[in-house]
Amino acid sequence: MAALCRRFTGFHFLLVLVSLSISSLVFGDWIGDDEGEQFTEELLLKPLPDRKVLAHFHFQSTAHPSPDSGHHHHLFPKAIAQLVQKFQIRDLELSFTQGRWNYENWGGSDPISSTNAKPPGVELWATFNVPVVEIDTTWKNLTHALSGLFCSSINFLESSTSYTTPSFVFGLNVSNIRYGALPREAVCTENLTPWLKLLPCRDKAGLATLLDRPSIYKGYYHSQKLRLTSTKLSGIILEQTLTIVLQPNIQRNSAHSLLDGAIQPSWSISSMFKRNLTGSCVLARTSRILVELEKNIVSKLEELGHGGSWSNSLLDLSPNPFRVIKEVNPFPEESNSILFEYVNSKEYEPLDVGIKWKLPFVWSSPHAPFHASRFLMGSGTERGSIAISLQSTKSDEYFRSKSNECRMQAVVFQVVPWYVKVYYHTLQIFIDQKLQNLSDVIEKIRVTPSEDKKLPGTLELVLGYPCTVQSVALTLDFDKGFLHIHEYPPDANQGFDIPSALVTFPNLHSSRIYIGDDSSVHSPLLLKFQEKNVVLSYTEVLLVPFTTPDFSMPYNVITFTCTVLALYFGSLLNVLRRRIGEEERLMRSKDATKRGLIPLIVSKITSKLRGMPRSKPLLIFAVVLSVLFHYIVN
Amino acid sequence: MAGIRGYWTLAAAAIAFRILLLFCLPKDFHLGSHPEITTPLTSLRRRTSPVACSWRKVTGSSRRPCRPTQVSPFPRVPTGERAELVRCIMAPLCYCQFSGPLVLKDLKGDLLISTADFITATLIRATGKKLMLSRYKHLQILNLSKLVETSGFVDSGDFAALMYLWNPMTIVICIGSSTSPIDNLMVVMAIYGACSRIPPLAAFGWVFAVHLSLYPVILIVPIILLLGYGLDAPPSKSFLLKNSYARKNSTLAKIQVNSGTSSQTDKAINHFSWIPVLHFALWVSVWLGYVLFLSSISLKGIGSITEMFRKTYGFILTVEDLSPNIGLLWYFFAEVFDFFRNFFLIVFHVNILFVILPLAIRLKHRPCFLAFVYIAISSMLKSYPSLADSTLYLSLVTLFSNELADMQFSFFLFCGYIAVSLFSPVMHNLWIWRGTGNANFYYATGLAYACLQTILVVESVGSMLKHDRLLRKTVEAEH
Which residues in chain A (574-593) have CB-CB distances under 8 A to chain B? Predict the structure, then answer.
């Protein structure tokens, strides 16, 4: 009877579950639209000047705060919602990057480069809504949670030597921000899979189906980013972006076979990703593809007399776009970039967006006013110097605004691990190769010197200099520390990585204004582009070669050192203990009864033998013989 | 018994030579980065870094800023700062030392260090003169002036002072912008103050030596012995022997009036006098209070005194910095398993502490020599040794050149010191700069150096004890 009862309740439960799931399926759409759980997917494609193509995937999920939603979510990933709830995250940005963003060729001042160009490895920063004393523990727990969530070693950011508290670099003058970077973290599919799991359709439908692992990891740059913003008003916004730079296969164009070398390679989605795009993720509110032509291409098109057309003598955009969105520029005499919009809605016919170039054409991407790079100086493994140089890119945009009063601001943020012992008093700043008085150039500075095995050294610096300057260089001397053998990474002779420095230009913004089209407002990607983001660039990761001890020596070193100590202690005590007078007296008294060692032993043995029974010596003799025999045989 | 002729010209020449070198050497001649010359504790460069940052804040004077002043202050500088730095900020010595904003560039600091060398040498010379006089007096009392004439009487004070001034290692250290000459000066000042029974000076030297580097704390034993018993003397047993022989003679010969000699020997047997020791204790507390007061002033708003102790003495005791030096501990603690780290830290420091008592018992009649032995032992086993420590004890050992005349292995030791001081930079260069050698090469020179020091200490103690026995035997033989 009891079993029957149990079966009945089980069946009943199943029934309830099924009915619930059906109702959620039926009303899912409605809930998703109205209650504010939204998901959008967008893809931006952009030809780059060095024959490559940028693909920028933007997935955005939002969960509006509502009292009745509670712990249940329809679209929004539950793992992230729990994360936000548990650690009271206000802002979080986590990026996994492989390769280095090429600021010269791929642009330095457009919204993509200033928000999605990330340093190699892992970078994580977060602000919390918790009291100041709890921030460090919250951060540590967060790193562990994230490393579990993304199958990576973010938990290395837990130790106080690897994260820091920037004060003004991120624009937020707050004490509840923590920043950490792992430059040597390798990024691969095991990080992408959990990232895709956060999408409602995973990579089974919609734009994410394009993410064919071999073709995206073959690219030149690969950065997957997760950005979380949580406020009481708007709820949680989760932006997942994947920025990749791919080299399209060169499709032979018979008509221009002679020009094939100079002509830009033509590409399409299917040729680049080796996948076809059929249909959108049904849960996505919008699913669209944008193709961006930079303003330098557009100006060329305008020269040729067909501005804004997608099929002209220079290039062919293969399916006709749904809409053309134009940027509005504050300088009307200049041409602006153009976005061609495609709506990904057809279920059965693949949407194969592509560009076919017809004429050879060279253009350049918009640069940041100064190109930041960082390098090491000095030889040997004892000391060296770090140099950060800012080279003017002479981009015309800033030459135009050039005047005598024009003053450029640059914020340098650099975190150096404690074992690179930077002497901050050796800071020297050269402007156009001339050594400057520090107080003339530095507007604001904040230095946190490193503390051995506790804190990394942090340098935050606001430089102010005239816009006409050609080059700015900072140098800092450092000594290389020596570590315990267990603190060296597995391949110690390779050296240590110093995370990228961040250079931002706070009075330059990379925002774009698009012609007030209502539909463009609904595109989260375009909204993102319209945000006022500071132009920034990351420098290279530095590889600092370090001296290594002999890793095979611990036992030898312990024994040698202890031997020397024993030698010292023993001989010193012996000298102190010795009574030469006593010894001499003893020797004198012994002299009378002095006997050699061998006679002494012989006499002892004979005296012993004499006291033994007859059979014993024979037995001993036999044992000795057998042992000897054993040894000889062996 | 005459001193070395032209001592002052030689001393002046040594100082002039230093100044000449300071002026002639190119600015980018990085002597200060050699591990034999500077340690994390004595490197001017490492000290300058935080001082430069917090200098303005600490002193509040109108010196040239090393950082823009309108800048936000450095809220975390001292708390997150390397150990020796805070210590340096507060030391009044450092105040004068860092009177130039960045001393490294200025010559002021180097000149100060040369002056410190000169004062050290003068104090060593004065100590030597005192030691020599006391030795002469005691030997006369024991009727052993004959011994003096046969063995010859070298003016050890002059020798030791010149040994200090003209030792190539001292010269190199002086121009290598290391602060260890000041540490040495404080140690010598303490010993001189105790020798000449000036408790304030002894207390000053001792307190500041302890303040600058922890290890001279064990010198309190010889200082108290010096203040209590007076200068080095042959063991009291020989005086007693002499006394008893004299009495026996007097009773045998029935000579009535010979009490003069016996009373003289009685006087020579030093009895412990508490008054200078109490004075010393009083002055130690005064100077300690002074140092702590200065520290608390300079640490105001930066940190607490306990934090300072943790970051200075803690840094010394726990061997946090594993950069190579001529000692053994850096490599040991770089290699040893973390689990045993604390155990070995205790073992190494106990090795210094355990020999204090036996040495004090055996050598209590020779407190000055005891001080030398302590300095030698601590410079061998200290966590961040440099050649500067060896220059001090090498010049102190020459103070006892008369007593240690029949020391064994002295030529071997001489060659060994030369070999180590030549090999050590070579091996360091091979390892760090060329990359052709490895750490074991450099560690091997460290091992050899430790062995040499062991031999020096053991042999000198042994021959000093032998010398005392010889004195007693000659006293016995005379009667």
Answer: 575-578, 580-581
Environment class of residue A467 by beta-carbon count within 10 Å: exposed (0-12), middle (13-18) or buried (19+)? middle
Domain coordinates in residue numbering, chain B: 14-233+270-478
| Percent of chain A whose pLDDT exceeds 90 | 26
Q: Does the pLDDT of residue B76 top 50, yes or no?
A: no
Which residues between 344 and 383 in chain B have a beta carbon less than 8 angstroms from any beta carbon of chain A?
A: 347-348, 351, 354-355, 358-359, 362, 380-381
Q: For testing the chain A interface, which of B57, B322, B347, B409 should be mutated: the one with the most A CBs within 10 Å?
A: B322
Cβ–Cβ below 8 Å for A557 and B50: no
pLDDT score of B404: 86
Query: Residue A99: is its pLDDT beyond 80?
Result: yes
More confident residue, B477 or B342: B342
- Three-state secondary-structure class, residue B345: helix
Report whether B216 contacts B210 (CB < 8 A): yes
Phi, psi of B149 (to 5 degrees): -70, -40
Higher pLDDT, A318 or B356: B356
- Compute chain B's Rg from CA coordinates: 24
The CA–CA distances, whole Å, from A448 to A440, B43, B81 equal: 21, 21, 9
d(CA A47, CA A65): 39
Whole-number pLDDT of residue B111? 77
User: Could you tell me which CATH number the domain at A370-544 has?
Assistant: 2.60.40.740
Residue A35: band (very low, low, confident or very high) from pLDDT cuts 50, 70, 90 = low
- What is the number of helices (H) and of strands (E) in chain B? 22, 0
Q: A99, A106, A94: which is closest to A222 by C-alpha?
A: A99
Q: How confident is the model at residue B153 (pLDDT cuts 50, 70, 90)?
A: low
Judged by a CB distance cut-off of 8 A, whether residue A442 touches chain B is yes
Cα torsion B42, B44, B49, B55 to 10°: value is: 100
Cα B184 to Cα A590: distance, rounded to the nearest angstrom? 50
Per-residue pLDDT band at A26 (split at 50, 70, 90): very low
Is the whole model's pTM more than 0.95, yes or no? no
Min Cα distance B168 → chain A (Å) is: 25
- Backbone phi, then psi, for B32, in 5-degree steps? -70, -10
- Considering only CB atoms, which chain B residues are within 8 Å of A453? 320
Q: Please check whether residue B2 is in contact with residue B155, taking contact to mean a CB–CB distance below 8 angstroms.
A: yes
> What does the pLDDT look like over B448-468, one tens digit per residue?
999 999 999 999 999 998 888
Where do we find the tokens 């020779």? B366
Q: DSSP letter string over A445-477?
A: EEEE--BTTTB-EEEEEEEEEETT--EEEEEEE
Give how far A185 is from chain B: nearest CA, Å: 26
Which residues in chain B touch residue A448, judged by CB atoms under 8 angstroms apart?
76-77, 80
Predicted confidence band of residue B105 (pLDDT cuts 50, 70, 90): very low
Find, in chain B, the residue whose alpha carbon is nearest to that of A550.
B439
Tell me: pLDDT of B27 over 70: no
CB proximity B321 to A under 8 Å: yes
Of B67, B362, B381, the CB nearest to A576: B362
Chain B residues in contact with A483 by the CB 8 A cut-off are 322, 334
- Residue intervals of chain A classified under CATH 2.60.40.740 are 370-544
Pairwise CB contact (< 8 Å): A573 & B331: no
- The tens digit of pLDDT for each residue in A75-86 reads 888 889 888 888
Q: Measured between beta carbons, which residues in chain A are less than 8 angstroms from residue B50?
A: 449
Count other C-beta atoms under 10 Å from residue A609's C-beta.
11
Kindly give the interhelix angle for B274-298 and B83-90, rounded to the nearest 10 degrees. Answer: 110
- Sheet hosting strand A315-317, strand order edge to edge: A267-268, A354-357, A315-317
CB-based contact, B48 to chain A, within 8 Å: yes
Whether ipTM exceeds 0.90: no
